[in-house]
Amino acid sequence: MSNTKSNPPQERERPDEREVRAEQDRDTARELGAAGSQLSTAPREESLAALPAMGIIGWVRWFWRQLTSMRVALILLFLLSLGAIPGSLIPQNSVDELKVQTFKGLHTTVSPIYEKLQFFDVYSSVWFSAIYILLFVSLIGCIVPRTGTFVGQLRSRPPGAPKRLTRLPAYTTWRTEADPEQVREAALGMMRKRRYRAHVDGDAVAAEKGYLREAGNLMFHIALIVMLVAFALGQLFKSEGGKLIVEGDGFSNTITQYDDFKSGSLFDNDSLVPFSFTLDKFIGTYERSGPQIGTPRTYEAHVTYSEGAYGKPKKSVIKVNEPLVVDGTKVYLNAHGYAPVVSVKDGRGKEVYKAAVPLLPIDNNVTSSGAIKVLDGYRDKNGKRDQLGFQAFFVPTFAGNGKGTMFSQFPAADMPVLALNGFHGYLGPDSGLAQNVYQLDKRKMKEFKDSKGGQLKQRLLIGETMKLPDGAGSITFEGLDEWASFQISEQPASGWALTGAIGAIAGLAGSLFIQRRRVWVRAVRGSDGVTVVEMAGLGRSESAKLPEELADLAVTLNAVAPTAPGPDTDPEPDPDPDVVDASSVAPSEGAEK
């Protein structure tokens, strides 16, 4: 074999050299004809400066081509990612309205600006929706024509060989004593064995490989559309709510049972999946030594649930990232805390209140705070109706008197202590204003005083009682329960979103690692009766391994049609010093999406 060549990297050219080069490339492209075209389904981009004067229809076409180009799609994706930044850093009304109000109170200067820019409702804002829709249209506008082009390519045969194979970027030739028909037959069998689509066209075998590259491109775009549609459906039809449940209590999946509930704009409350569950027991264990002391090791909520109104009870365990799934609705375990069981007696010694009161953790050792409210049934020693309120501070593991402040030393309930200070008066339950169940509104309440006139407060162990002054009654720390917080979510089309993500990764991998290339093998009898074999390859501009692949094919074919003995009389390559790069005959990569 002889006369094997491949193109060296091009050096930077001056403007006048680029003009000459471009003209030569156009001449080469015209000469190669169909052999150098349709290596990609991407549309060619047109420069605005090169366009003639356009009317309205012309401008619409130009705008459509720009919208469906790779450049604009990347810009839209970049804008979409930029738009998600304020949605991640700034509290959102759709997630937590209380945090939004707190943020507005702390940042009075920027909050009006954020309000006008819709930064508190990023994902439902006009500008975010516009980017989302434009990206969607861009992808659709790209996929439809490219799919048609690709299907046409699959139905057609590889184009015939150019007249001058020497002008292709990878080329080799040799002389053999085998007949041209034998060489072409051997080349056809070799190409098909290597999974090329091949056929005999005149005096040459035309073969092509790498169609899955374009299939990967289309799969990537279609997967992006599937993901966009899935996310849109998920936002429109989703429902999400939270519920705090104390051991022994239960939950039924109805709107009134939620502590907080959010849903998409098209969600129907009647579409909630009917089920219920009871928190039988919460089990939490923690690391007791070493550098990770206090780190949770076991976080399990043991529940009994039933599907539908009359479903058979079933046992299950909900763990972190291992939700309970009931007909597409997922119940996640979010948080855990303690609920001291307290009983309250009035001035006449009658028990008027007994319940497990959930307190909210304020640190990793489950130091907790909250409020105990006695709204009904309480009377003082004179029989007068009144209301009681207690500020509660709880630690599951108390260090002991004189051994630090009233903060927990460990998250497990090794030595639970409940600290209380009491108030009486009007709690404001019927004022018409929303109240936080974990905070005490003391504006219309009076503080209980001890015998010295100071604030009445006391630390209680389980079984201990705090007496209220002037025969006002007492409160007893009866025991300790645990609570768990659950998030109940219904997210439609989440499976489609996952499928789209997997498809996008697979399509992107195919479009990056599969190379589209064409190979031609020409066998003709020379004037001296010896067969001249020419092999040439053409690929996209990034097909750096094309010369190596062509060399491997040539070695395989040469074993069937060996080089003829005698002096080297192979035809010389085209004396034209300009070697054609694949990029001169393949569509520009910048036009592809």
Features:
alpha+beta, 3 domains, seven-stranded antiparallel sheet, 10 helices, 28% strand, cytochrome c-type biogenesis
Count of alpha and pi helical runs: 10
Give a short account of the largest sheet: 7 strands, antiparallel
Q: Roughly how many Å is the radius of gyration?
A: 39 Å
Helix content: 25-40%
Overall residue-averaged pLDDT value: 84
Strand content: 25-35%
The coarse silhouette is elongated
Terminal-residue CA separation: 40 Å
- How many DSSP E strands? 23
Structural class of the helix and strand makeup? alpha+beta
Task: Indicate how many domains the architecture comprises.
Answer: 3
Poorly predicted tracts of residues: 6-13, 572-593
Keywords: Cytochrome c-type biogenesis, Membrane, Transmembrane, Transmembrane helix
Subcellular location: Membrane
Main location: membrane
GO biological process, one term: cytochrome complex assembly
